[in-house]
Amino acid sequence: MYCRYLFALQVKRDLSQGRLTCNDTSTALLISHIVQSEIGDFDEASDREHLAKNKYVPQQDALEDKIVEFHHNHIGQTPAESDFQLLEIARRLEMYGIRLHPAKDREGTKINLAVANTGILVFQGAGSASQSNSLAVIASGAISLVVIASCAISLAVMVSGAISPAVIASGAISLAMIASRAISLLSG
């Protein structure tokens, strides 16, 4: 129960810092569960007062009506149930748990790398991850997190210039297969 609360706090923090990218409807639904957990059952006056005092996302004012509308549907939920629903919604978001790390490709174009359960993702473009175009999903299929983490560490070392791409590619065959596309993007 305490772990669920800590994860809910993490989702709340990620929303406020702009790390959790989602559409307006999902954002409003997430915030409505946070409000239910914090102040209890729906009361329009107290909802609007609470939202005026607490900013959960930068552009919250535009979502206020939607948040209040969603909060009305949560009457009777306990804080623990609201936290559970918050986590259920968050875990279904496309970018949940993905942290973007800035890098540059061989032409000097800014890209973002991320490690996900499907492998290493490469995003190109400005703005948030939901607006970016995914260039490649590397190492799709069943693969151990150890191999994915090793590849991410290798890429980070390579980008910093500490080890050449040739040295990284000479590692385990599975790591070389995973990293081949990323290395071709990052090395010249």
From TrEMBL:
It comes from the Eukaryota. It holds the Pfam family FERM_M. Keywords: Membrane, Transmembrane, Transmembrane helix. SUPFAM superfamilies: PH domain-like, Second domain of FERM. The keyword Ligase does not apply. InterPro entries: Band_41_domain, FERM/acyl-CoA-bd_prot_sf, FERM_2, FERM_central, FERM_domain, PH-like_dom_sf, RAC1-GEF. Residues 1-188 form the FERM domain. The chain crosses the membrane at residues 135-157, 163-183. Signal peptide: none annotated. The keyword DNA repair does not apply. GO terms for molecular function: guanyl-nucleotide exchange factor activity. This is FERM, ARHGEF and pleckstrin domain-containing protein 1. It comes from Galemys pyrenaicus.
